[in-house]
Amino acid sequence: MTDPAARRPASAPVRILVCDDHVVVRAGLLALLDSAPGIKVVGEAGTGEEALALAARLTPDVVLMDLQLGAGIDGVETTRRLTAATGAEPARTPHVLVLTTYDTDADITRAIEAGATGYLLKAERPEELFAAIHAAAQGRTALSGPVAGRVMANLRKPRPALTDRERDILAQLATGLGNREIARALFISEATVKTHLRRIYDKLGVDTRAGAVAVAKEQRLLP
């Protein structure tokens, strides 16, 4: 994989592609970035699909990515595809800097696991955004203060101690199986599945199947 920072001369501006589905927000970002030293906007996209097409043609150094993009693929999936090396030739993949209003643990985890170099909130000052873009162009992690705090808190937080059987059930749950199907797959009774699910919910601090799967993914409890 060819690092965009390695192929860009030190004196060259950071080439940016902006992806946000809100036209007004996108226009504001373009106007803001136009005033930033050492930054050049080379394109704008309103959907993930459009961002992928433009990135392939324009080869930006950094893609400024919103998470929620309306219809079509979201920012996380777009990030995953942008940062994945494809084709026979070395991929000229851009770094992705997420710029969003969402700061939940699930959103942060999904974006970082998809390959995002940085995660910034839209409430940040312009100077922080400019600095984060330059950092991302060099492959350095750029996180908003609140996001960095959440990441560190999650790293320090002990993971729930699930039994092997609870992990098995949780893995089956993540595939979308119901209680009866899980019971058949694991050769246990449906009542036993329900008992284990109650314990899983208690340990993860949730009360729904979807909540259990989401927390399990955040805590990296699933294979």
Characteristic key phrases:
single chain; 223 residues; alpha/beta; six-stranded parallel beta sheet; 51% helix; elongated
Give an account of the 3D structure.
- The protein is of the alpha/beta class and 223 residues long.
- The protein is built from eleven helices and six strands.
- The protein has a six-stranded parallel sheet, sandwiched between helices.
- Helix 4 links the parallel strand 3 (62-65) and strand 4.
- Helix 10 crosses helix 11.
- The two termini are 26 Å apart.
- The model is unreliable at 86-91 (pLDDT under 50).
Strand sequence of the main sheet, in spatial order? 2-1-3-4-5-6
Helical residues, percent: 40-55%
The coarse overall form would be elongated
Could you tell me how far the N terminus lies from the C terminus, measured between alpha carbons in angstroms? 26 Å
Output the helix-strand order: HEHEHEHEHEHEHHHHH
**Strand proportion:** 5-15%
Tally the helices: 11
> What's the count of strands?
6
How confident is the prediction overall: mean pLDDT?
86
Main pleated sheet: 6 strands, parallel
Spans of at least 5 consecutive residues with low confidence: 86-91
Structural class assignment = alpha/beta
CA-atom Rg in angstroms: 21 Å
